[in-house]
Task: structure prediction
Amino acid sequence: MAERREHSRSSNFTSVIKKSNEKIVLIFIISLLGLFMHYYFPGMIVGVILLQTSIIAPTLFKKLDIKDFSKVIRSLWPKFFIFLIIAGAATLVDLYLHDNPNVLHYGIAGLTTLFAITCYAIIPATNRATDEGNEKKFNILHKTSVYLTVITLLLNIGFLFV
Result:
């Protein structure tokens, strides 16, 4: 009987140790995520920009007639820029909560958010220029959006290296 109690105590002790180790590992993983989470959002930004500009938009352009393409693109691009605004703002918040953020990281996150807001804001004017056949105005607005998106992509790739 004493042997059973000893075995039971030993099993309980082993169980407690295993649970403690699991908690320690979980805390360690969460701590690591906290240290590196601010890299996650710029990575998402890079991935979404590459997906949108190199796969989604070209495929839609090739597969849809111009009227359907216009409808889909006018629905898709605002959501794309809203996502970039949210991801840029999330990066800023995460940097603020981080112990020792780099000022360049703040700059990249701030510019990402600002550029996405700018691109989102010029969408109605770009659409209006297209509808009115004002090619010059459309080209200026479209190039602005493209350049700001490319700069955003490059900045967020560089985020890892600064």
In short: The CA atoms of residues 25 and 31 lie 10 Å apart.
